[in-house]
UniProtKB/TrEMBL annotation:
Domain of life: Bacteria
Name this polypeptide is given: Porin
Keyword Signal: yes
Pfam families on file: Porin_O_P
Organism (species): Pseudoxanthomonas dokdonensis
Keywords noted in UniProt: Signal
InterPro entries: Porin_dom_sf, Porin_O/P
Signal sequence range: 1-23
Highest classification ranks of the organism: Bacteria, Pseudomonadati, Pseudomonadota, Gammaproteobacteria, Lysobacterales
Entry keyword annotation includes Signal: yes
Amino acid sequence: MKLLHCTLALAVATIIAAPAAKAEVAIDVVGGSEVSFEGLVQADGYWYDNDQLNLDADPGDGDDTDFGLRRAELVLKGKGPGNIEWVLGYDASTSGNKFLDTNIKYKFGGDKNNYLVLGQFKQPNSMEELSSTKNNDFISKALITNLYGTGRRLGASYNYGSDDWQVTASYFGRELTRDLNHGSGYGLRGGWAPLNESGKIFYMGLSYVNRDVDGDTIRLRSRPASDLSQRLIDTNIRNADRLWTTGLESFFVSGPFKLQAEYMTTTVDRYETGFADEPGGDYTTDGYYVSALWNVTGETWSNKAGTPGTAGAENPAGGMWQLGLRYDSVDLNDGVEQPGKMDIVTAGVNYYWRQNFKLMLDYSMISGTRNGVNDDPNVIGARAQFYW
């Protein structure tokens, strides 16, 4: 808790000192490396209209609400010497308390599209997971992003391409922070933007991740449009040997409008035990989302290596307004195993003020089944965010 208080005090002091037109704070040049400091603090609140399951993270407190510090990220970055870049990040929030991107990048010939990364980084699957967290379109990421996105792992990655296309290959092990995600594997991702100009973008891509399942059991579960609530669907897959995920991704930009979609399917390879009560054979689950965003104030998006980049407000003092609508779905049922499925419609409004502040408000209508019982709650989510 003491570290958390120090984090918040440092963040506030940094925001006050930083100029409004700059998102990061330059520190010094150390050993030929231009060192800068970045941070992200997000405070969330959720209000539940429960149906069957009490979604409150603490069902015994008598409230249908959850409040918490979602992220408190502190990041040091360095450029140089030469073609080397490095990053050291940590999330000091109680829900995080883990290392973020912590790696060294070498750009061959100084080319931003031709580089090698060593350390911990996001693996090459899930376009939404690879996008910048501070510019999430909705408070909670899509169901398939949280379920199937591999996230950050220790390993090595090589990227090659241009502004219009890219291919990434990686090999990875466990997460840097102990007792979190583990299981070695590899990933591949490729994408192409046949239309790639200011205010006009069409991108499509494909990803594949294959990894070992340590411990022979993998848990698949998901919260309903909230990063703090109870899980609405939940299952343990026993006798698991390996897991592989295939993803399709695309986004289209026309001026202030953006359409974005992803489909992902995961297969768990299970070994036969010879016992009648032990499951065997592959277990397969899938899901998708489709979202639409409108920048009411007229700003557009960019294409950053196959992820949408959010532009800042054209009028920083007036800010930038966004309206969004998303439909996402996930189905964990497979044959006789019926742990559940969930569909969510989310409407949201976002307000970016200057370069450092963002407010978000979402309303989500959920339709789910849990152990064969229908469960249809509604959730209101709010987020206050500042970053530098």
